[in-house]
Design brief:
The chain is α+β, with helices and mostly antiparallel strands. It contains 16 helices and 20 strands. A 6-stranded antiparallel sheet has the order 3-2-1-6-5-4. It has a 5-stranded antiparallel sheet with strand order 10-9-13-12-11, covered by helices on one side. The N and C termini lie far apart (80 Å).
């Protein structure tokens, strides 16, 4: 066999392997698309929102199980719920001929610690060092090969063991299952807080003596902040937490300085009771205070006046505003926080009370932040990672209300990818998806920071442009139309490069419409006319009407 024949043989094998891989990927993508169509995204996102706000455990758990069976194709589901020190069988699907007692597990700290940490489904083999070999064998005899926990921070509420299918190999499905787990965890966590509130109230009632005065040694008073468990906006929640601390400890004034997990450049300041505002507070280096404050204990501000640090200067500023004490009070992981106050309790239980309130406050903030992350997931388009139609609809209503209140103009732009069908027919739907993603990136780079970009559906994008008029909108659309036309789009796997164009239509509030629904209709009409006029062009509905006149 000569070298040429050998090379041709090797080349043929490589082509065959690449063809097989491409076919498998296309089948996987089509399978993913079918399942996504089966699952209504609006229902899924509404399910996450409702459960994270006021979910009843039995209802949430039932919906989670339904999703696992109908959407994710889990043939076997085993859920163990933690009761006191044990994990016990609470729900099952797809298994027969078993003794419920066989599933009972001692919930040791090592076991629960190895389970919690993330909501993503993981391989059952990760628990082989924590579960008895006989237990692992029993699970595998039912086909179980994955698990995911239901937990919040250090509280483990249960664990799901499932028999996965090929669907779980997709990162998207792993994220969606993690969202289900987080939603159920939120329901359990809310229930735990409500139980804690009732328990502390009961303990407080038992300690009432004489004329309704609490016993001097009692510290079991129900914190008013526990009533904030259903509050979902972390920034407004923190302000309410500060007010609750002042109420619970009878303080004259309270100030909280903190950094959140997203914007860490400057500390934020919230005070309750009197003015008590510290000048240039954003310049405080909170990390310096850690060196001089004993973790979990209150410290007199006057004792800090002698330290050789910038802390002394800021301690004096706090004192000048009427504050007396300070202690560490971090609300976000890895981010410093500081609580300052005057008045209030002066007993041996104060540090214990502060630690208790700090634990509750950080739990509540973590709960609100987790809800925010889930909500962001429900507002994201899976293909382009842009905002989706649900988010667009909400923001358009908000921006129109703002424009109406301040008597400002706002423009809405609809953009449609020209000839997407021909791209799909010639190169396949994966190529069309790739072009949509690339166009989405161009749009993202072209808008202003105040603009709101979303994928409206199919091959349509929409852009909300606050504080813009017809002239600004026309210039933007023309520039964007030319930018896309000049761009080259690479087709994944094939290495081919092609050109593509978009058509755009725009409308102005309040010139062309007085409400969101009408504004969408006007912008869409302008887009349809732009496509009818030959595509690769931009058109404002106002200019169409003038032309007709």
């Amino acid at each position: 066999m000569d070298n040429q024949t050998l090379m041709l043989g090797i080349l043929a094998i490589l082509v065959l392997v690449l063809t097989i891989l491409l076919i498998r990927r296309m089948r996987s993508e089509r399978h993913l698309s079918r399942v996504l169509n089966q699952m209504n995204p609006s229902d899924f996102s509404e399910f996450l929102r409702a459960n994270s706000v006021d979910g009843v455990i039995s209802t949430v758990a039932g919906r989670v199980s339904d999703f696992l069976k109908t959407v994710f194709g889990c043939e076997v589901i085993i859920f163990l719920r933690k009761k006191r020190r044990y994990l016990e069988l609470n729900y099952f699907h797809g298994i027969r001929k078993f003794d419920r007692r066989e599933f009972k597990l001692y919930a040791s700290k090592n076991l629960t610690d190895s389970m919690i940490g993330e909501f993503m489904p993981r391989s059952l083999d990760e628990l082989k060092d924590q579960l008895p070999e006989k237990y692992i064998s029993k699970l595998k005899s039912f086909g179980v090969n994955m698990f995911f926990p239901v937990y919040w921070r250090d509280n483990c509420y249960g664990v799901y063991f499932i028999k996965s299918t090929e669907k779980l190999n997709s990162e998207l499905f792993r994220i969606m299952i993690a969202s289900l787990a987080q939603s159920l965890s939120a329901a359990y966590h809310i229930k735990w807080h409500e139980w804690r509130l009732e328990q502390t109230k009961a303990e407080s009632d038992e300690n009432i003596v004489g004329k309704g005065r609490p016993h001097e040694k009692s510290t079991n008073r129900a914190p008013s902040m526990l009533k904030l468990v259903l509050h979902r906006d972390s920034e407004t929640l923190i302000g309410k937490l500060v007010g609750s601390i002042r109420t619970d400890l009878g303080m004259n004034r309270v100030a909280l300085l903190y950094k959140n997990g997203r914007d860490t450049a400057k500390p934020r300041f919230i005070c309750d009771g009197g003015n008590g505002k510290i000048r240039s507070v954003e310049e405080i280096d909170l990390s310096q205070w850690v060196q001089f404050l004993e973790n979990g204990r209150n410290t007199s501000l006057r004792s800090l006046l002698k330290v050789d640090s910038e802390v002394a200067k800021w301690a004096e500023s706090f004192i000048d505003q009427g504050y007396e004490f300070v202690c560490p009070f971090s609300l976000y992981p890895e981010q410093p926080g500081l609580l300052a106050w005057s008045g209030g309790e002066r007993n041996t239980h104060l540090n214990e009370r502060l630690q208790e309130l700090h634990s509750h406050a950080s739990d509540l903030v973590n709960n609100a932040e987790s809800y925010r992350r889930v909500e962001e997931l429900s507002y994201t388009d899976n293909l382009t990672t842009l905002a989706n139609q649900r988010y667009f609809s909400r923001r358009l209503e908000e921006e129109i209300q703002r424009a109406r209140r301040y008597k400002r103009k706002l423009t809405l732009v609809f953009a449609d990818l020209d000839e997407l069908k021909s791209i799909n027919d010639r190169y396949g739907h994966l190529a069309g998806d790739s072009v949509l993603r690339q166009v989405g990136r161009i749009l993202r780079k072209s808008i202003r920071s105040v603009d709101i970009l979303a994928r409206y559906g199919g091959d349509e994008f929409c852009i909300i442009m606050p504080e813009s008029d017809a002239q600004t909108c026309a210039q933007f659309m023309d520039r964007l139309c030319k930018r896309v036309a000049k761009s080259k789009f690479s087709i994944e796997d094939s290495g081919e490069v092609l050109g593509c164009t978009i058509s755009l239509g725009g409308a102005v509030f309040p010139d062309d419409a007085e409400g969101a629904r009408e504004l969408i209709k006007m912008a869409d009409s302008a887009l349809l006319q732009a496509k009818a006029d030959g595509r690769n062009r931009a058109l404002l509905i106002g200019s169409m009407e003038k032309a007709v006149e």
